[in-house]
């Protein structure tokens, strides 16, 4: 029986996750334009933590002992996948367009994941994979070169892109840790623990900036975007991602990240009016091609899995 089909398909769950995440880049940028970046991160994941706590109280099964330390592992993953990732991500958004984030993070994350699996000997180093990794690195270099010479930000945009790259490193590590985090604990509870742990640390980071926000003057759009980010892009998406990673593994889950740049590019250009320079656009295409080749080894996912 093919467990990938049907309403509970892990690939369907991952696809919905990528749609939510793809639209979240420009939605996050809309919030960062009105509040400090640390406060924006807290709004997204503080709200997401509250939503998950409510969901856990309503739908979560009774906590069991499971594998010793599983709850602490989930919370520890939140330090990496929620706090560190979003600390770099929202800081980067204050310096660079969301369009850059939507290319660098979802494309570099599977490249880094694939590279780690090769270096540690967990997957074989085929010629196609090595060629893809090399092509991806060239594309990333061209992309950063284009960002540094861009008339739409220059060195500021380059600094933001560097922070997005650090976010990609955090997310790759978070993805690799997923199966171990899920051992002995249900996905909803693991997601809640991870999000709450990350949100607490984001709260500490944002505390000095909270008093600088004129809360009464914030436009309604900020609150609508915050609600969408907290419930959809944080709580629901992270839960679906945990389920997907647990079902298909980190390598195949990271492959789904390639749908995010498409969704993000549409949202960033239509709603935020952002654009690439010619050199950045060329770098993005080379990076995407290399990433696909590195992860698939030049073969379709179904054939690569045999």
TrEMBL record:
Keywords, sorted A to Z: Membrane, Transmembrane, Transmembrane helix
Family that this chain belongs to: Belongs to the EamA transporter family.
Pfam families documented for this protein: EamA
Chief place of localization: membrane
Membrane topology: Multi-pass membrane protein
Organism: Streptomyces millisiae
InterPro entries recorded: AA-Vitamin_Transporters, EamA_dom, EmrE-like
Protein name: DMT family transporter
TM stretches of this protein: 38-59, 71-93, 99-118, 130-150, 162-183, 190-210, 222-241, 253-272, 278-296
Residue ranges constituting the EamA domain according to the UniProt record: 11-143, 159-295
């Amino acid at each position: 029986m093919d467990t990938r089909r049907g309403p509970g398909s892990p690939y369907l769950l991952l696809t919905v996750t990528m749609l939510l995440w793809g639209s979240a880049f420009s939605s996050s940028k809309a919030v960062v334009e009105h509040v400090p970046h640390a406060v924006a991160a807290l709004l997204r994941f503080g709200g997401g933590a509250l939503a998950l706590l409510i969901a856990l109280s309503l739908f979560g099964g009774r906590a069991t002992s499971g594998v010793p330390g599983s709850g602490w592992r989930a919370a520890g993953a939140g330090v990496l996948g929620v706090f560190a990732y979003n600390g770099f991500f929202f800081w980067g958004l204050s310096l660079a367009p969301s369009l850059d984030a939507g290319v660098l993070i979802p494309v570099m994350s599977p490249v880094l994941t694939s590279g780690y699996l090769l270096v540690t000997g967990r997957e074989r180093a085929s010629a196609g994979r090595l060629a893809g990794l090399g092509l991806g690195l060239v594309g990333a270099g061209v992309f950063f070169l284009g960002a540094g010479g861009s008339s739409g930000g220059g060195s500021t945009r380059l600094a933001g892109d560097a922070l997005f790259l650090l976010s990609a490193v955090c997310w790759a590590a978070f993805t690799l840790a997923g199966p171990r985090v899920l051992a002995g604990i249900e996905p909803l509870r693991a997601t809640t623990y991870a999000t709450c742990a990350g949100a607490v640390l984001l709260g500490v980071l944002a505390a000095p900036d909270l008093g600088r926000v004129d809360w009464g003057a914030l436009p309604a759009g900020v609150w609508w975007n915050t609600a969408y980010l907290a419930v959809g892009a944080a709580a629901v998406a992270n839960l679906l991602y945990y389920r997907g990673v647990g079902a298909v593994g980190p390598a195949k889950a990271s492959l789904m990240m390639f749908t995010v740049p498409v969704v993000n590019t549409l949202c960033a250009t239509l709603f935020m009016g952002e654009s690439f320079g010619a050199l950045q656009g060329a770098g993005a295409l080379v990076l995407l091609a290399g990433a696909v080749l590195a992860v698939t080894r030049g073969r379709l996912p179904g054939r690569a899995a045999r």
